[in-house]
Amino acid sequence: MSAPLLDLRVSDKHYDTRTILERLTLSIERGEIVSLVGPSGCGKSTLLRILAGLDRDFNGEILIDGKPQQGPSSRIGVIFQEPRLLPWLSVADNVAFPAGPRRGGDPRVGELLAEVGLAEARAYLPKQLSGGMAQRVAIARGLFSEPDLLLLDEPFSAVDAMTRMRLQDLLLSLVRSHGTAALLVTHDLDEALYLSDRVLLMTPSGKTGAGRIVREIEVSVERPRDRRDVLLARLRGELLEGLGAVAA
Amino acid sequence: MGIDEAPKITLIAIGAFFPVHLSVVAGIRGVDRKLIELGEVNRLSQRALFTRILLPASLPHIFTGLRTGLSLAWMFMVAAELIAATRGLGYLLSDGRETGRPDLVFGAILLLALLGKLSDSVLKAIETRVLSWRDTRTGNSR
Q: What's the whole-model pTM score?
């Protein structure tokens, strides 16, 4: 059997004297969508920053296709909580940012913008976009370099409920058509269950209070999923129980 | 450097240098860490990080510094010409004072004000053009 797309082993991660993560392993297969949920402060975002290569101060290793990776990788794309568009670049230049300066003329930019439904907005400046539009541009930028794995840090937490549902469907169709794997950090249990193949529940545990993955839930509901699905509701209950046990 | 143009130019340059220098440093220090992370994630080199993120992001600060520097340059020019010069606006000021000709003095002051306003307006027009991407209140900001 070949190595999974991503294999992460963190033996520990400290901030000063506080232990944030401890004995944590995570592996993601090609094309798989995995969500990471847990109470705030449990180290979810730290884990994502480690995977993105932004935080190298930890004990452990990241393997991509079985090969150790240090620092940011071209095979991993990151979508942040805010769009983080560069305000001085047009939408097209922002999408093509990974390729180099002023590459907005790249034919792939047009394709990606059409996919996220913003074909007409290519010459706009970020200040002319709404929050939902800006996040769609950020998704297009995340996919521009054709990464094998997309990391998303609460990407839809700042948009309204209707926009969020539309963006979730958009993300789902994009990662599936591009065959990209995704790791999604979220606070929203419904979002996690609707999108993912697996949901990982992460909580501070042990006497150090370091973050660990305490439960893993397979979501075997067929796609396209119904947000009112009974099985999803039951899994949601299970997750809430897990979170409740943590809070107690 | 003698008493030719060189010492005057040096004085003006020193006077204008520091506000520009301070604003460039403050601008680059003040760049949002989130944008820098975006550069890191895209594996930009130090050089590319500077030209593609740090420099454009600090342009608003740099322009403020340039305009401050420009006004200081005018002041230093007058100061330099007051001390040792045989022509120029500062010389007209001191010459008019010594020969009792207020028309020269007021003319020089008026000309200075006009030149200062004109050069600042040119710089401001460039600033508005270069920084059209800024998402700030449009209208007459000074």
A: 0.87
